[in-house]
Amino acid sequence: MPFPDIEAVAPDRWTIAPATKRFIRPATFLPHHLDRIKGTEFGSIAEVLKGFRGNYETTQEATIGYRLKNVDLIDGVIYAPKSSKSLKPRSRRLPLYAAPKEAAKGALFESWVGNRWFGNWLLDDCLTYPLADEYGTPVTTRPITRGHEPQYARKLNLKPVHVGDVHFDELILFRDKGQNEGKRRRAIQIREKLLASGPSFLHHPGVFILRGSKGDHRILSNEMEIAQGFASKYGFQIIDPIASSVDDLIRACAGARVVAGVEGSQLVHGLTVMPQDAALFVIQPADRVVSVLKVITDRQGQSFAFVVGEGTCESFSVGWDDIDRTLDMVLK
């Protein structure tokens, strides 16, 4: 039988950042593109449409700290008496284990979504790290070795202790899901730290960040054609993140008026450092439309625009005319 989540039964908890009221502005889009949506992720179609349409007030939940005593972290799952919390899928089928021999104290800053997607690691876990550093010794089960992660870790001075199966005499956890004012301030501090660590940059019309066929498939069949349209008509830079360093990405995105590309974690390179008055322009397949990145632009007071292509994640396309009309609305 599944245990209750540890957060629900933790006896020692405190508020780090209070809940925040926020007005959600509408996205920029062509109305008929809503009719193209066939499927969504991380929310129902109704929820995603509500976020795109905006014009309502929401409450962003508080950031909460939790202190636990005498818990075991085994195979990516934290176990306490009659409660548990999963950080990643178990590698073993049954949750049976011997008591760990190693004991420690620490503050955990990783999340299930951050372990799954690079974009959530950079947008969420890296923002929780300063809390872990403030309240204890930052610990993680996740080696920071994939892709651009080591470069970001050096720039952000992330120095967590990596742990495997371990007993915690004391463990601090954080519920840091709400995009409240405290989290917004931490995001600004992360941006300033990245800009200070990177090369100089100039303000310019925009950047198109290629996605290609890497990661979970969202394959825009005419991606290069669309990217070239952004470049030739609007003076955008085109950058391939796979072939670029973090310094290259900061230089391209830090001064961009618009960051554009297919929906995915590669856009987070731009979203993390783009100016406070910039816009994110997202191209999405009809069977996997999400509003997650709009949640971040809403938090930062930035603009969000999107188009929905025709086809599926495995291969979809979008006409330049729809891109052009939508971008014209963004730039007015």
Description:
By secondary structure, the protein is α/β, with parallel strands linked by helices. It folds into 2 domains: 24-59 and 202-331, 3-Layer(aba) Sandwich (Rossmann fold); 63-177, no CATH class. The protein is 32% helix and 27% strand. Strands 1, 4, 5, 6, 7, 8, 9 and 10 form an 8-stranded mixed beta sheet that branches. It has a 5-stranded parallel beta sheet with strand order 12-11-13-14-15, sandwiched between helices. α4 (118-135) crosses α6.
Task: Give a brief description.
The protein is of the alpha/beta class and 332 residues long. 32% of the residues lie in helices and 27% in strands.
Which helices and strands occur, and which strands form pairs?
Blueprint: H1 6-9, E1 12-17, E2 20-24, H2 45-53, E3 56-60, E4 63-74, E5 77-80, E6 83-86, E7 103-108, H3 112-116, H4 118-135, E8 138-140, H5 149-155, E9 161-162, E10 166-175, H6 181-197, E11 204-209, H7 223-234, E12 237-239, H8 246-253, E13 256-262, H9 268-273, E14 279-284, H10 292-300, E15 303-308, E16 310-312, E17 315-317, H11 320-331
Parallel strand pairs: 7-8, 7-10, 8-9, 11-12, 11-13, 13-14, 14-15
Antiparallel strand pairs: 1-4, 2-3, 4-5, 4-10, 5-6, 16-17
Helix pairs in contact: 4-6
